[in-house]
Amino acid sequence: MRCVIARFPFDFVASEVEALMADVKPEPATGPCVVIGRRTYPVKQVGEIITRQDRRDFTALEVTRALRRLGFTCVNQAAPAPAPAPAVGDLLG
User: Fold this and answer.
1) Are the CB atoms for 75 and 26 separated by under 8 Å?
2) Average pLDDT in the 79-89 region?
3) How is 36-80 classified by DSSP, letter by letter?
4) In a 3-state reduction of DSSP, which class is residue 34?
5) How many CA atoms lie within 13 A of 4 on its CB side?
6) For the chain, what is the radius of gyration of the CA atoms?
7) Helix, strand, coil % in the chain, rounded to nearest 5
């Protein structure tokens, strides 16, 4: 499938994307993410690997659009909830 990311044309095939990401450990998933195999990756991490461009050169929307067209499931992961604040009695000892 032909797509344009950061003004550069790319031809992607789903199996090639899966092969490129097979040995890559996913970064903590927050914000726009894509499910490849059993793993959930941030789309910026996937975009950096499949395009060999710096993450600052493209938007998450560009990569999300391309990955959806290839048939991958894209989700939006919420940031982890902050730890609860300690009670006042816990602080005083």
Assistant:
1) no
2) 66
3) ETTEEEEHHHHHHHHH---GGGS-HHHHHHHHHHTT-EEEEEPPP
4) strand
5) 3
6) 17
7) 40, 25, 40
Kindly report the number of other CB atoms within 10 A of residue 50's CB atom. Answer: 18
Tokens of 19: 């092969």
State both tokens at 58: 């493209």
Q: Which of 51, 47, 50 is nearest to 74 (CA)?
A: 47
How far CA 40 is from CA of 6, 16, 78, 79, 84, in Å, comes to 23, 17, 13, 14, 26
> Residue holding tokens 């996937």?
46
Q: Which phi and psi (to 5°) does residue 79 adopt?
A: -65, 145
Kindly report the pTM of this predicted structure.
Answer: 0.79
Question: Could you report the per-residue pLDDT of 7-61, keeping only the tens digit for each?
Answer: 899 999 999 999 999 999 999 988 999 999 999 999 999 999 999 999 999 999 9
Copy the structure tokens of residue 51. Answer: 């395009």
